[in-house]
Amino acid sequence: MANQNLHQAKRAKNDEFYTQYVDIQREVETYLEYDPNVFRDKVVYCNCDDPFESNFFRYFVLNFNRLGLKKLITTSYKPSPIANTQLPLFGDDETLPKIPGRPKITANRFIVTEVKDMNNDGELNLKDIAEQLKANQNNEWAPLEGDGDFRSPECIELLKQADIVVTNPPFSLFREYIKQLVDFDKKFLIIGNMNAITYKEIFPLIKANKMWLGVTMDGRNKWFQVPDDYPIRENVANSKIENGKKFLFVKGCLWFTNLDHGRRHQPLPLMTMEENRKFNKKVQSNPYCYQKYDNYDAIEVPYVEAIPSDYEGVMGVPISFLHKYCPEQFEIVGWSRHNEYNMDGGYWLGGKNDATINGKEVYRRILIKHKQK
Asked: Which range has the worst mean pLDDT, 116-120, 169-173, 269-273, 336-340?
């Protein structure tokens, strides 16, 4: 049902799934634990975020000084009907009155280079930011010439200034979005759907260790806020309305990044094949575990915890392996689907079938092997 919601969003060209503040906070903090200076003196660009509604803007502007940012740039994709009346992202803070002279409906950009206590009350909060933006004091709040599409010339010019891009891009444009980041050689931390792992534009980047998964989302269902005009049904398991705001329970969401974090360098604790057969009940109950594929020289390992420590050949493991992938421990050599693409220098399954055991197709598998010590 949740996937159906995503398909509906794509058909309607409505990809506005607003990430919750706490989800952004949890993920960013994991990179700070690994490298406290990861954002210091950096320009962060949130280029798929209405500054009036985005929790990405809210997080980075409130933590601007703590992170040591040089600049924060935020641009919206679609015109904001509330641009002149209020800043609802300011939470419980007072909303701003309409500012004379600003267009009624427009895509906007915020460029923040300084955050300070404007009213000298000893507390930095969003009211201070609002006052700075309203006065354009060392910061800029201005309408964009176009609609704020990340592919537009003015947004590309802003992208060129950025060191790190952090946002929740439209899922339906994920391939194109990633390509732009790679073409401009940008660091990034973005949200995408688990299915993106299988895209021919994405998997080679993961295989080449140029992109990996983040930390705090593991593909399980996650609540996202949606626009007020998004059609949802109340009292249905995958949707809800709280405090007048609409939410959807979306399946298969992940953080994708090329920022380093500590978890990806933690090797998996493994048992030998014999130990797994003796002590792992899942292995004991699965007749396909450790069998060789009919059409490829690799063995089937249906559970990440069943990866044998002493097998030197190629193994087919679940996609969930990527949450535990340590590049110092394993090498990704390919993908089990023959009919999607041939990776230059990698393995793929030829012939008319996908990976099979005794003629039966298995689930999609990542093909890996232990790195030689």
From this structure: 336-340
Domain encompassing residue 70: 2-259
Residue 61 has pLDDT above 80, yes or no: yes
Q: Which residues pair with 139 in a beta bridge?
A: 112
pLDDT at 105: 57
Domain boundary among 233, 259, 285: 259
Q: What is the pTM (predicted TM-score) of this model?
A: 0.81
| Higher per-residue confidence, 188 vs 129 | 188
Could you read off the pLDDT of 138-158 as tens digits, one per residue?
788 888 888 889 999 999 999
Q: Across-strand partners of 46?
A: 74
C-alpha of 268 from chain center: 23
User: Do 286 and 316 share a domain, yes or no?
Assistant: yes
Choose among 300, 331, 334, 333: nearest CA to 317: 300
HSE-CB for 341 with a 13 A CA cutoff: 12
- Whether the pLDDT of residue 219 is over 60: the answer is no
Fill in the amino acid letter for 210.
K
Question: Where do the DSSP E strands lie in the chain?
Answer: 43-46, 71-75, 108-112, 139-143, 164-167, 187-193, 212-213, 222-226, 239-242, 245-250, 253-257, 298-300, 314-317, 330-335, 356-357, 360-361, 366-370
Helix axes 55-62, 21-34, angle to 10 degrees: 50
Considering the domain architecture, whether residues 317 and 242 belong to the same structural domain is answered as no
Instruction: Tell me how far apart the alpha carbons of residues 106 and 265 are, in angstroms, rounded to a whole number.
Output: 44
127 with 74: CB under 8 angstroms?
Answer: no
For residue 135 the two structure tokens come to 């006065």
Between 79 and 302, residue with greater pLDDT: 302
Same domain? For 234 and 297 the reply is no
User: Number of folded domains in the chain?
Assistant: 2
What pLDDT was estimated at residue 6?
38
Residue whose token pair is 């048992």: 271
